Amino acid sequence: MPLKITLHYEDCAEERQLQLITKIPVKWRGGPVKKVTDFFVEYYNGKFPENTLDPKQIHAENAGGSKFHADDVVEVSFIHKEHIYIKGGAPPRNEEKRRREKENDPTLLTCQNYGCQFRYREEDNGSKACYHHRLGPVFWNGYKYWACCSERKAYDWNDFMKIPGCLCGPHSTKKPEGAELLSPTIIAARQAELEAKKKAAEPQLNDINAYMRESKKSTKPKPKATKKKEILPEGQKRCVLCKEAFAVEDNHDKACLYHSGRAVFHDGAKFWTCCSADRKAYDWDQFMKIKPCSLGRHWDGEGDNPNEQSGKSCS
Q: CA torsion, points 298, 300, 302, 307, in degrees to nearest 10?
């Protein structure tokens, strides 16, 4: 299919304006737009030698004013019979291409400061080149935050990485000392691992009688902790659905506001199975404030749940 375009240059006096209809050669179609603009500049400068154009100071636009990058592909950028306008000013920088080139450039160094990860050259480094965090990241209960800026928490990774640094200094390729800040769960696991290693390093009992004595000591049953029974005023009981105390004689079909499903804690999110579609929380207080979805009678947990047949949704 042919690719013919009309090139216009109108940024000058009327007598030096130019309109050029050109058929793009097949070998140019997979090449850059710069090939076409250079061709136009060469043709224009030959026609108007007293008013020459600088190929580095012009760019191409379509009729809607969208500018083309110099390295955009011709057959992707231009449409058959389209009008293209040559305008003054250098072509816009292709930031996406520059980003990819930078990512793949083996000569660039990667900053290891907390929250930076910027790629740089040492000659461009300076005392105020890097804004970063003083302490490392913490991931806990769905939250992501920097230990030095704990008042600014995020759930989303991109929001977490956008938290501005609290220190200014030079970029560095050296990882900070004590580079990991761990969740309490991992800290507890590592503590247990250390205790296991310490126990393994203790002197081993080679005598069977000594072994039996130590074994009896370690297996001696511990007294069970007795759960303190709640004492409520006479005529009152504790509802297992809404956790509120209630007077038995005042119980009725609309006395209890509760969740008919069970609580789920998954990947930092907290929700009730009866309300999981659009009511999730990450913070415990927010989770506890989720409005119950069912209305019925209080139940102290003894016998059958009186709401299994008659419970009503209050949504």
A: 20
